[in-house]
Write a structure and sequence with these properties.
There is one protein chain. The chain has helices at 8-17, 41-57, 65-73, 88-97, 152-164, 183-197, 209-223, 226-231, 250-261, 282-303, 330-346, 364-379, 400-418, 424-427, 429-436, 447-455, 468-473, 480-493, 501-510; strands spanning 31-32, 77-78, 84-85, 102-104, 113-115, 119-122, 130-132, 147-149, 171-172, 202-204, 235-239, 266-270, 273-274, 309-313, 316-317, 351-353, 384-386, 391-392, 397-399. It is of the alpha/beta class and 524 residues long. It is globular, with a radius of gyration of 24 Å.
Length: 524
């Protein structure tokens, strides 16, 4: 029966403040997407056919000798003009062998990502060369964030911020350590800063195979040995194996071979820019990127059949008036959603990119661009949505406070992905009877309302839902202000220590670590 509680508002506030058990949260990592389908069945068939035609008739130039040997031995053909062709049979065999239902492990098992079916996870990524510095408020006016070069300290701070943001499920390098000139030292320290800053799964990258080998040695030490690493590889590599259109990137292919043989999951990333390095037509851009990634999938499965590989067609959009990238456009949103749908067609673990606002700061333009690009991506059926938090200026800048705001956005998007359950309890027929027949004729204070307010509803951390009068009473600030305060609070108090001081000291003896240990704690 209906229950009217004395002090019902206080009860609701107390319930809201109480920590939730994991199985009672309204959204959790890995909600099932796949409800937004920009492509019809006929569209998918046409794109699929075009991708196979491109692999069979055009293939790739600039294949390295080891790749040529693997592919030709399996039935591919290397032409006189230096193109490596992939017959349909070879691609279909790779699709049969390809890993499915894979797990991207984390250093803390509760953060493991189970890539099966339409399960969706959101994370960072990118190679921003600047930080939007308004989160520190260094003599800046509100809303006047300055861009400065990103540093290794920034990268570590971003990792530990993500470690505390609930709706950002994995961390991939989101900026470049511009204070390190050596590519080798940068790659090594990017590995160190990422895996030291968060217990969540990390995405890494390397520009040279020797750097990848050194990075793997570091990961072995952290895991407790090579066998322990291979059992639970808690980092993956993002590999841009192709220079679109359809040219292998030689050094990246050598990195790919090292990482596959080293047991590291790999994101096969093809990132043509529509109108520049891929066709301006959206369907053509999708077809080309699918062809490129399918070719790399053949390559990976010839190195190691069934190796965990993520299907990553990332066609980017150009503003054809200027040639500049437009990561926040409607075209970008539908392109990535279409790629997510193609990944489901092939039944492959799939990663796409969204949330790459063109706006230079976290403002109204940024919120709109992130809302529709992330919403479409989350509903497309892709398993991983990269670059989903903090990215501004078409991937040129990373905003700390923006990532905190985006955490709210991702919680809401994930709630929309979860959808609506229609079991008998959710349909609430008995609850309606209780309220309408002999009850108070409203649902406030009902047991069902109190239980559902936490299990079914996601609440923003920094966004406000006050009345205009209440909002003005507390200062009338835009969301950037509480986001900045929340970010400062996390970065002033959260210093992960899952890598012990003893292990860290051994790492510093063996590797050229440039991030001082004293700058990784509250005393800095």
């Amino acid at each position: 029966m209906s229950v009217r509680r004395a002090g019902g508002r206080a009860a609701r506030k107390a319930l809201r403040a109480a920590p939730l058990a994991e199985d009672s949260k309204p959204v959790r990592p890995g909600e099932s997407g796949g409800r937004f389908l920009p492509l019809t069945g006929e569209d998918i068939a046409r794109i699929d056919q075009a991708a196979f035609d491109l692999l069979e008739q055009v293939g790739f130039s600039r294949a390295i000798p080891s790749c040529i040997e693997l592919v030709t031995r399996a039935g591919g053909r290397h032409t006189e003009d230096g193109r490596l062709l992939f017959p349909r049979r070879l691609v279909e065999e790779a699709l049969d062998k390809a890993a499915r239902d894979i797990t991207l492990h984390a250093q803390a098992p509760q953060h493991d990502l189970h890539l099966s079916g339409n399960k969706v996870y959101f994370g960072t990524a990118g190679a921003a060369v600047h930080v939007v510095d308004d989160w520190k408020a260094h003599h800046q006016l509100p809303g006047k964030g300055a861009y400065r070069e990103s540093t290794l300290q920034d990268l570590y701070d971003a990792a530990r911020l993500v470690d505390r943001l609930e709706h950002i499920h994995f961390f991939q390098r989101c900026m470049v350590a511009r204070d390190i000139e050596s590519p080798r030292v940068m790659d090594l320290n990017t590995t160190y800063a990422s895996v030291s800053g968060t217990r969540k799964h990390c995405g890494l990258s390397y520009v040279d195979p020797e750097h990848a080998e050194e990075g793997l040695r570091m990961l072995h030490r952290i895991a407790g040995g090579e066998a322990a690493w291979r059992a639970r590889p808690f980092a993956s590599v993002s590999c841009c194996f192709v220079v679109p259109p359809l040219r292998f990137a030689e050094d990246a292919c050598r990195v790919l071979e090292v990482c596959v043989r080293g047991g590291m999951p790999v994101l096969l990333l093809a990132a043509g820019q529509a109108g520049a390095t891929s066709p301006a037509s959206l369907a053509g851009a999708v077809a080309q990127e699918c062809a490129e990634v399918l070719g790399a999938l053949v390559y990976v499965n010839l190195i190691q059949p069934g190796h965990p590989a993520i299907f990553g067609p990332w066609p980017f959009v150009s503003d054809l008036r200027t040639g500049a990238m437009s990561g926040g456009s409607g075209e970008q949103a539908v392109l990535m959603a279409a790629c997510g749908q193609m990944g489901r067609h092939y039944d492959l673990p799939t990663g796409i990119a969204a949330g790459m606002a063109d706006s230079k700061i976290p403002d109204a333009q940024s919120g709109g661009e992130k809302g529709y690009t992330l919403g479409m991506a989350g509903h497309s059926g892709a398993n991983l949505v990269y670059e989903a938090a903090g990215m501004q200026g078409s991937l040129l800048g990373f905003s700390f406070e923006g990532a905190t705001i985006d955490n709210d956005v991702l919680g809401a998007v994930n709630r929309s992905v979860r959808g609506i359950e229609t079991d008998p309890d959710s349909l609430a027929v008995q609850t309606i009877i209780d309220v309408c027949i002999g009850g108070p004729e409203h649902f406030l204070g009902h047991d069902a309302t109190l239980s559902r307010m936490q299990r079914d509803y996601v609440y923003p951390e920094v966004g406000n839902r006050l009345t205009p009068a209440e909002w003005q009473e507390i200062g009338g600030h835009p969301v950037n202000v509480p986001a900045r305060e929340k970010t400062r609070e996390i970065l002033a108090s959260h210093f992960p220590r899952h890598i012990s001081d003893e292990l860290d000291a051994r790492l510093r003896e063996e590797f050229d670590i440039r991030l001082p240990r004293e700058q990784m704690g509250a005393a800095r």
